[in-house]
Write the structure tokens for this entry.
Amino acid sequence: MVKILYQRVLWKSFALAFVMAAFAGSAKAQSTLSDKVSGKIGRKVRFGFKLDPGASMMRPQEDGVTRNSGRFYFSYGVLADFFLDESGNYAIASGLQVSAMGSTLQYEAGKGLATFKSAVSEYDLRMTYVEVPFTLKLKTDIDNGLGIWGQFGGFAGFPVRARGTVISGTTKFEKQDLLRDMNPLNAGMIIGAGVEIPLTETLAGVVGFNYQNGFIDVTRNGKWDDGRVNMNNFTVRLGVYF
């Protein structure tokens, strides 16, 4: 059931992104806005808000641990672009976001947390991170003020909540607090691309896709005995700059 829900939400996110991208085509008629987007009025920095729905997948890299399903990913937060040139085509993109993610993992007997390792156990993990992205963002303008952007860089994240429903053998343990069993830091790579749509003289909408690849083991190996487990997220970027 979790897997079916995860797939449905992911496809709905893609559909919403494509609808907004189609709206970008109609925005091409707004030629009078071509030189009035917020990135082109001489400011050194601009701020915005974003909502990123998508898919979250924990990737075990050791035998004895398998991923049964991913989870719905959702992130919201503040965007900040620090411009490196007068035209606004080069920027350091950062901000602050709260992200919910997780997966369902199955551990063989003898692996996993001590409380549950006596039998084959399934962990439905749900985690919340506070994250700070830091990327180089490049944008090029096309007809009538539309912009195409791409970004590459990294992120650092800190877990603030981690809960799991564990089925160990025939016993179910609801909503276990697992925060102290998680690595206190996650970090990795971000790569993304999309379009920027002029809406008013200083307001711009953003639609795109981001891939976030975690480099750090998110579970404390000394407690889980599970080798490296990375967190990967594929998201739809929906945002607005002021």
